[in-house]
Design a protein that fits this description.
With 237 residues, the chain is an alpha/beta fold. The chain is built from ten helices and ten strands. Helix content is 36%, strand content 26%. The strands form two sheets. The protein has a six-stranded mixed beta sheet with strand order 6-7-8-3-9-10, with helices on both faces. Strand 4 and strand 5 form a beta hairpin. Helix 3 packs parallel to helix 6 and helix 4 runs antiparallel to helix 6. The termini are far apart. The protein binds adenosine-5'-triphosphate (ATP) and magnesium ion.
Length: 237
Amino acid sequence: MRLEIKNLSAGYGPIQVLQGLHLRVEPGELISVIGPNGAGKSTLLRTISGLIRPTTGSITFDGKQLEKMPADQIVRQGLIHVPEGRRIFSKLSVLENLEMGAYTRRDAIAKDLDDVFGLFPRLAERRIQKAGTLSGGEQQMLAIGRALLSKPKLLVLDEPSMGLAPLIVRSIFEIIQKIRSQGVMVLLVEQNALQALGLADRGYVLENGRIVLEGPAKDLLASEAVRRSYLGESLVH
Ligand SMILES: Nc1ncnc2c1ncn2[C@@H]1O[C@H](COP(=O)(O)OP(=O)(O)OP(=O)(O)O)[C@@H](O)[C@H]1O
Ligand SMILES: [Mg+2]
């Protein structure tokens, strides 16, 4: 089971955003993609999950070509995208939102619901609460929990820490680590480069729709360019 992206270009109408990029997620890996605002990170994830069609290149997952596959079919391959900004169903309860995550399944979900509540005790306490009244951190937990009920093989997360307080960010990252330790591959887009690379096996730096740097996460964390641009370190001491 691996994701392999070759020479991928994509954009919106005449606007080309992704400019021929290569990226792969190997079995069991957690991969982080970092980059400035507008670099094309979300566009990359939308293209992988079939919401945008590539203009060139190929996306292969578990031996299947995704680039012409409808988005709902991609979900059925086990590739689950948690988009930026959480998109939960605010009028539905926590439990109903989680059940929506299981819509592609025909088997019983009780055990998986228990697992998600085990991972997110806050959601268990609030299972009948309307999702729209959850805090930002709780909504992010719900979005991830809902994705887990689709039984992802590859979980694609777009800035799960966005707008959250440091303590909640830390618990979200711990949960991502746990999910990964259960054998789910993870592709994580983050502004929070230090923590994202801290979790990742490998990382990619995306700028202007191109991969400008890639390698083992610890090498990226040590690299001068990453430290200067993404970890807020000045070269002048
Ligand atoms: N629906 C759209 N129509 C036209 N252009 C878009 C659309 N969505 C994004 N873009 C443009 O594509 C470029 C990349 O946007 P994208 O959202 O992929 O960046 P990003 O790296 O995720 O940024 P951020 O860190 O701010 O989330 C930007 O210049 C943006 O304005
Ligand atoms: Mg984005």
